[in-house]
Write the structure tokens for this entry.
Amino acid sequence: MVAGIAALECFGVVGMSSRSFQDGIAELLLGKENLTKGIEVRIDNNRVIVDLYVIVEYGTRINEVAHNVIENVKYAIENQLEVVATKINVIVTGVRTGSNGNL
């Protein structure tokens, strides 16, 4: 949840996307926002690797948004959980246009 909150705080990120089709269907059926949606964490030999699946706002510079997400998530993980985030990957899965949430 720390990584998800930190990612959503970044300018240009409008949401997290489901990592799999099953996650998306479960979310539609349950009608709830899941703060762990779009986040995969792996720990290997005391190395923490985080994959974040994000949706960005149309008109933003995707590379800058991704860089800001990496920095913010790394800071949050290392300061709140006191572990070293070795690698943070940002996967942009969509671009949202307008205020009505269209992709």
